[in-house]
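Hi F.,

I've been meaning to write this up properly since the lab meeting, where we talked about keeping a consistent format for the predictions we share between groups. The idea is simple: the sequence comes first, exactly as it goes in, then the structure tokens exactly as they come out, then a line or two of notes. No screenshots and no reformatting. I'm using this chain as the first example so we have something concrete to point to.
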Amino acid sequence: MTLQKSLIAQSFSQAASSYDAAAFLQQEVAVRVFERLELMRIRPEHILDAGCGTGFCTRHLRDQFKRAKVCGIDLAPGMIAQAATQQRLFRKIDYQVADIDLLPFADNTFDLVFSSLAIQWSLDLNQTFRELNRVLKPGGLLIFSTLGPDTLMELKQSWQAVDEYVHVNQFIDMHDVGDVVFNQHFENVVMDRDVITLTYKTLLGLMRDLKAIGAHNIDSERPKGLMGKNKFKQLEQAYDAYRTADGILPATYEVVYGHAWKKQGIKKDYHTQEVNISDVKIHKA
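Output, unedited:
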């Protein structure tokens, strides 16, 4: 787990300077999360952006909730350094390098915990949502987005025609995420999903974008070493089966959204009661 987290931090740190220019999907998803947040009747005083990256969402939170103190944390030091370059003289954001699974905050610190496209990198969802619950005040709001298993399905299936290695990061089903949120002492859990398709002229364009945002393959079962020209050509040929009539290559992303409220009066000994997904409201796209 330590090795994997170090790889995640390293990958995103290396991508920090190129991230914003290639983060089309991440910014679009953030906008959709903020649209959901606008429906919530809240006036938070303390806000956490968990997995803040270069601070795109953190700055929006600061501007939307002008009286709130805003903190952004990220596992990747390079991302935090990049975010810090866009600070204002007044109302500075408190940026910290920190692990979402071991947050450096006291219990019941935040009224709002926001996280957009960060939770998919969690190695233990139970631990992640346990920590997010711990730092929320009773009655506080958690709102987040993550990626579902149909993400990059074209690339995943194309690789399966080439070899048996894992080449695409694996993500968790919306129903399973909803179960975990409920089991970690949240209530009024609501989950929904979108399917967003980006389009490319070439497979190389997709691969470059994935590298530019640090989201290339970091799975422990990935093949070691560089990809040869012959293998890349095989991959291109397999992916070409998805090319549309107008010559465009699609790249599908399954985006999962969730929000929930921390239960009132939760004791510190976080006892988990397993539940069925029937206890969670699901909105289908």
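Notes:
The chain has a mean pLDDT of 88.
The two ends are 34 Å apart (CA to CA).

If this format works for you, I'll send the rest the same way.

G.
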